[in-house]
## 1
Amino acid sequence: MYNNVLVPVSFDTERDSAGSLAVAKHLAGENGKIALLHVVEQVPNYVLSALPSEYQSDARETAEKELADMAATLPNASAHVIAGHAGRTVLDWAEKNQPDCIVIASHRPGMQDLLLGSTATQVVRHANCAVHVIR
């Protein structure tokens, strides 16, 4: 069992948040803590100018509410919404908060991942703790 489990959460429909939460709950046991983390990525200025002015604040509020609702279903869970680049920010948060394990959902890899990589790939390659990938 792990004492401190980090679960990066993407609200992308291709990611299995339910599976990640179930695995994290199992790995944390009765006494372990679970941190749910959502990273709000920066919207490019050329796109942002075409969106309503409240788009970013509304998106963050929605993410905070959904993540808090997820955390409420788990024992010893907390919700964190931060801004940044997904892969790098997850790693920075993990370095600062020292989880024992990261449970991260991933999509099925394709050709685009050979060139660009993915958040899960970056976390697996660079995390300083155990990483459990859910597909």
Note: The mean pLDDT is 89.
## 2
Amino acid sequence: MNASHGARLGPRFTLVWSATAASTLGDGVTLVAAPLLLASITDNPLVVSGAVFAGMLPWLLFSLISGGLVDRLDRRRVMVAVDAVRAVTIGVLGVAVALDRSSVALLYAVMFLLGTGETLVRAASMSLLPALVQPELLERANGRLGVARTVLHDMVAGPLGGLLFAVAAATPFLLDAGSFAVSAVLLALLAGAYRADGQPGPPTAPRAPLGQEIAEGVRWLLAHRLLRTLAILIGLLNVTLTATMSILVLVATKRLGLGSVGYGLLFTALAVGGLVGALAGEHLVRRFTASVTLRVGLLVETLFHLAMALSTSAVPVGVMLALFGVHDSLWGIVTTSLRQRLTPPGMLGRVNSAYLFLAAGGNAFGALLGGAVASRFGLTAPYWVGFVVAAAVTAVTWRVFDRRTMAAAYAGPAAEPAAEPAAEPA
């Protein structure tokens, strides 16, 4: 990790960053507008929450398959094709809303299709990045992408989506369609071929069946001690984190005495912390090492649940959320960069998707767990469960993230990015 401060990420990364920024803004706007649209159709909480589940379900159904496909196809072409399809999909919803022909079923279908596309794009984009930048710049590149997501998705898209929906209900969805179209065009301008095998055309040698290749990627992840630990760890921590965040609105209103504005400010604190972590991530990881970053992150995760269980004032909760935002950004930078460094280029799609499958499983189970535990044992119960789980995970995995192990991971072989290739048609 001896990246020079003067080293540039390059024009190819700039194209990918710009495409990510465009689609991320649109994603965030739709994330706000979709519940508002549902609320205008029905007041049934289960129907409203069903849209979130519809968007999450593809991660459980298709993420492993998407990883296998990404390792077989040109990753840039996958992203271009998926963004083009997503532009049409969300555009259809926008037109339906404009014509007053929207329905719950249509919105569910659109959210499901968008989520399915996201399983492909996430796997492809994380697998594409090591071919664009030098290995020592991966933390910087992932940090820059994190800045785009935090600013545009978490800070700008929320108020913008609400404002556009108030002006005309169809506008946020049409904006999202435009953002996907812009992303597809920018990615189409990215020169070169980005197949996992490094070849510009279809493979000449026969390949194993897709299911066998997916299983190979899963086995590789589970056989790698460091990445296996991170994958299982994030799955467990996502259970408790999603469980606690799913009831945060009730904690804010009933325990902290906040209104809608105060509740929104809690997420602002989380986003501000995330932005700080994304901007300073490369420097902090280089200064304190990945070992310290991950270990401190585990402590922050544990203290977050404890503080939320004990606090009856909004101020410490806001501070803790901001600190958690910093941790979340740093954790993402380190773990994503490690997967990109340590995974063979030909398996990046499958390994990233297997990792995300475990994370999504934790999110899905946590969303069900939070309400059930809070209903049975009280609002603070999920936070106490989270504290116990995080403390146990910290104790069990502490030694895995020692300095020697992390130094060996960063010293290991990492794929060099491809030379600047000649342009080829999209």
Note: The mean pLDDT is 86.
## 3
Amino acid sequence: MSRSPAVVPLAAGSASAPTAVHDVALLDLDGVVYVGPDAVPGVPAALATARAAGMRLGYVTNNAARTPEEVAAHLTELGVPAAPGDVITSSQAAATVVAERWGGRARVLPVGGPGVAAALRAAGLTVVDRAEDTPDAVVQGYGREVGWAQLAEAVVAVRAGARHVATNTDATIPSPRGPLPGNGAMVGVVAGVTGQAPLVTGKPDPAMHAECVRRTGAHTPLVVGDRLDTDIEGARRAGAASLLVLTGVTDPATLLAAGPLQRPDLLAHDCGGLLAPHPAVVPDTGRWRCGRWWAGPVEAGLVLGGGAGEPAAGPADDGLDGLRALCVAHWAGSPQDGGLPVVSPDGGPAADALRRWGLLGD
């Protein structure tokens, strides 16, 4: 999907539900379909409805800990039927990169969950256990069991000449207890001790989304994710449209402060956003309007107004129209920069909304 630089992300919305516009949804998993072991409430039903409407589903995850077979089985248990071929993991992407760069017989030291070594073996690579086995590369992915011993082995191997390959550098993973350390935190240990920056193969590198597009034969894919720096940037770099959901790590303040590569095309609370039209954000005498809400620049930053008592226009407000207006107003005035602006309310409904989104200053 090509974009004109003059088009502000989120502004166009979608006059029809994404299921009627996009043939395939490429869904992230952690923070989108499930959080920890449990499905995000309402998501299995929403995905079933999307599938019944003719949309095909693919799953693209930076979590390298499990095999596609394990991921597909977990999804099916949660009421989201999936086959291993529907899933592409960052371990598979890393294995492909290693095979292309060092040959199909390359020796690789895996660091992470079982999914890392399984993907390497499936690609025909030679998996080794120790730095003394002279690996060509160290492939590091997420795994709950990763500890000092594995990290130390990786450090020794990299210092001896092995290339450090990271499946992803997500600093955190979502959980029912809040954000927890992700693969990026552990990758930082190896990189910090060795002084060598890793080669990163997962999102936002477009290879993972491109592989899913090839597998599904998608013509108009929509990337659905909860992270700006992987899902949304990965979609933009792959030339695909994107839908940000707020069930994972991104909150309204982080979205508002997003830089140019990390601004989504659509916004929803959760995957139910696949099933309904999305309102446009339109210019309105020096400011931007979305439904009952408007936002515009003031000397100190931005102002948000509207809400109750304003005339309705477009799809019913899902509680995010004011945030859409704020984002477009900020991004239109800062096309090349991110950063969180100061936002002031015009009226009680705006103050309540800003407080709910964590955007109302003291």
Note: The mean pLDDT is 92.
## 4
Amino acid sequence: MHIRVTLCWPHLNEVGADVLFFDADMGHDDQFPWPRGYAPMPMIALIGSEAPGRIEWALDQGSNAHLLKPIGSTGAYSALLIAADAYAKVQAQADDIRALEDRLRQRPIVVRAILHLLQNEGGGEAAAWKRLRSVSMDWGMTIEDAAEAICRNDKHTRKGP
């Protein structure tokens, strides 16, 4: 393993790092070029003062692990592993949240597709849901994407106003 260290103080000017160590005692709100808590890499806070405000600031920045100052010959490796694991979990959760938010935004389309199926195929609500699930599986897409396709096809097949 090779490690290349770049000092970027007081302002971070190199974002291509694999991990970022930052001094929580000397940090300031505009230090990072990304929104608070949205770092593009794992972050490890170097903490000398255990003042609650400094620790809270480090956590708000998105710190995934920490090392106590002064830095000695131990702890860095475990901090790297912990930070990488915590960062991966945070990213996975953020991806899951985005996917769920996208699905939630598509719910009105699902409702329109169910109404379309009710009007054109009959059989009641349960039958419309079953048909939508069947179309989704047959076409190899999510229910939301299948609903969008059904609504899009409905617009193309409807007669003018």
Note: The radius of gyration is 25 Å.
